[in-house]
Amino acid sequence: MTDAHPLDAPADPFEVAQTAAADIARLSGVARHDIAVTLGSGWGKAAELIGETVATIPATEITGFSKPAVEGHVGTIRSVRTPGGRNVLVIGARTHLFEGHGVRRVVHSVRTAAATGAKIMVLTNGAGGVKPGWKPGQPVLISDHINLTGRSPLEGATFIDMTDLYAQRLRDIALEVDPSLDSGVYCQFPGPQYETPAEVRMAGILGGDLVGMSTSLEAIAARQAGMELLGFSLVTNLAAGISPTPLDHQEVIDAGRQAEAVISGLLAKVIERL
Ligand code: HPA
To answer: Which residue's CA is minimally distant from atom 2 of ligand 1?
Structure first.
């Protein structure tokens, strides 16, 4: 934990992202990427369906990246070429805030994606469902978020508009692919403990439909980088107190596995149209 890390101050996190993007270009042979997608719990199979894998790079070979600490995350970065000829950077290594490495490392993959040239960022995650009627295994479009972490990736007096953060234009494209998709507001808690039932009730009262431990901070960084953003949650479980049974990480992984083929297919189809 005390080892120096490339993102530690006084480093400029945007310069480190440029170095990481150069690593990706060198290791993949792909100079620029058009779209980036972060695969959260349950979304891992999408990489194969998006297109042909040009290169698979262990995250640890890219400046500033870490091994994922969470089971169900893959730990590699891939360069994938879609049938339409676009280059997609598939990020299977997410650093969570609860790992305790600081917000710079949480959003480094997003800043790196922007530095590779990506103009569109797709963030996916596994989340607890708060909205009545939702079932485990269901994908949901993220319409907005509530950041309950008390943290931000922005440093200093960086005032950035957060309107239409999860771009309506991109959500409309996803809805063309699957008109049955429901939408919801994602609440990011710091974790790593799951929420108490009272916290889940609070999230619902505040206007939240999904609870999770990622995405919001990455979304803010994507906006700062000028990328257009699309977000998907997989409801891996009903949130605490809504579910009659205690929460279990294995349940989250199992729900992801069961839904994987369907939601990954959906994601691949949406990406082809972006
Ligand atoms: N809460 C927080 N994070 C999660 C959940 C949850 O219920 N399910 C999957 N990730």
So the answer is: 212
The length of the chain is 274
Q: Which of 176, 195, 218, 228 is catalytic?
A: 195
Instruction: Please tell me the distance from the alpha carbon of residue 188 to that of residue 166, in angstroms, as a whole number.
Output: 15
Q: How far is the CA of 201 from the centre of ligand 1 (A)?
A: 14
195 among known catalytic residues: yes
Centroid of ligand 1 to alpha carbon of 269 (angstroms):
26
Site residues for ligand 1, CB cut-off 6 Å:
126-128, 194-195, 211-213, 236-237, 239, 247, 252
Which residues are within 8 A (CB) of 55 and not within 5 positions of it... i.e. 6 or more apart? 27, 28, 29, 30, 78, 79
Q: What is the pTM of this model?
A: 0.95
pLDDT tens digit sequence for 47-82: 889 999 999 999 999 999 987 676 656 689 999 999
Is beta strand 138-147 parallel, antiparallel or unpaired with respect to 182-188? parallel
What pLDDT score was predicted for residue 238? 93
What tens digit of pLDDT does each residue of 226-243 get? 999 999 999 999 999 997
**Residue 164 structure tokens:** 């239409």
Question: What sign has the CA pseudo-torsion 76, 258, 212, 165?
Answer: positive
Q: Ligand 1 centroid to 50 CA: how many Å?
A: 26
